[in-house]
Amino acid sequence: MFNSLTGTITGKFPNTVYLDTHGIEWDISVPDSTLDALPPVGQTGRVYTWMYLREDMMKLYGFASVKERNLFLDLIKVDGVGAKGAIKILSNIAGVQLVEALDSGNVAVLEKVPGVGKKTAAKMMLTLKGKLTLDEDGGGTVHSTKANAFADVITSLSNMGYDRRDCEQTVDKIAGELAQDKEFTAKNREGKEEVIFRRALMELAQ
Q: How many CB atoms lie within 10 A of CB 150?
């Protein structure tokens, strides 16, 4: 599964961006925040992707950053939200405000988001409260300092179909176990990611 697409922005429309990669033009659903963050039409841009695949439908969703995609992936775990709903939510409230509202239990803020309502707000609070924290630059969410250091590994594993929180917990555990391993700490970033990816894949597959 691909992690991102880089190409020429050929069109920008409400919740949609067209991206040309070597003659293939992708129709990607995006939140307004991503639309605003991407370069103007005609320039090169990178979109972090997530694919929704069913027997009768295939849809590509895109985000300006890994953090925004992570927040989207957390939202679609909420019963009744779905991919379209998550895009709508992220289009109407900044990620930082959303996380703060969830963390503080401010249901009123969530209820004001178009398409959410009382029932969905309650489900969001039940599913996500206390499980999201602001990262250091306020741009998204992280679930663990160690796991965040290997965010690309977590994304790769979750894109293979494993539950994202299971991936985060597994990567966090493995990173902690290897923190005192001199052979591991001597490796460069790519080397560390490869070791953790292989071990996490074995554990998740059990």
A: 24
